[in-house]
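--- STAGE predict ---
source: upstream dedup step, 1 unique chain passed
mode: sequence only
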Amino acid sequence: MTPTGPLEGLVVVEVGGIGPAPFCGMLLADLGADVTRIDRPDRGAESWAANPVLDRGRRRVEADLKTPEGVALVLDLAASADALIEGFRPGVAERLGVGPQACLARNPRLVYGRMTGWGQEGPYAHTAGHDITYLAMTGALHAIGRADEPVPPLNVLGDFGGGGLLLGFGLLAAVLRARRTGEGQVVDAAIVDGVAALTGPVHGLVAQGAWTDERRANLLDGGAPFYDTYRCADGRHVAVGCLEPRFFRAMVERLGLADDPALAVDHLDRGRWPAIRARLTEVFASRRRDEWWALFRGTDCCVAPVLSLEEAARDEHNVARGVFREIDGVTQPAPAPRFSAPAPRR
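--- STAGE serialize ---
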């Protein structure tokens, strides 16, 4: 299939890995970039490394980078590419012979993207880590969870939000410059940097005195009873997010509790929060999740069912927009964001 989309004409080489680097490759390919992924010959034996969604949209070639032939293939592909992505620990690409110096010598316009957890330098740069490790060291993990313990938010925040997305953003910025100046460069995308950037708005709230370092004590961390989840009669949950006064009033009225002494109050008054939470806990426990959704669907109450991955793919809004697609029997999210023209392949 000929790539189409806003990145049509962008040529990318992706040195195969796991997690955030291939996620970046997927995003670029989704939007029309011509991405060639280079995998080790033995990758097929590692079932955990292959992912039918992360691997979509690009051609795949095999090369052993510990051989001169494998190194030559990478350098040859880099010579005619706009960008290259690798996710090795610092120094590994150099030892293999496919580091920035070697690749830029072949192609001075190349943007060389490096995806790591800790970055290319610093005291932790050469140590192992995973999403949860980087979240822990940026303060993000401390802020997520219940009052008595932090909870890992899957690996979407670090690996993919602070990692793969950051790398894609940096690559495209550097490609724009390279096309203007003819000069390539190295993009050092570290998950710790990306997650720290994502917490920027929270740091702003701290500076304003609107956020404390205590978990589950703030407006958006589950501390507020109108921004939390509630267990229903069937053991499933609804999510409540009626932050603004008009949305909170709409929810209370929809519940038929406009005169309830616990809810007919200024919901932003922290002194009222325990009573509001206790009443909402009692109310939402009285019906099944889907009964609540039947009541709140299509309103401005900011109440929604907490759907499983399978349920999300069947939701009427997601179906209408084509948020998820089935390709080769695999349900997966469609490319995002959307563009008016030309449309990215889906």
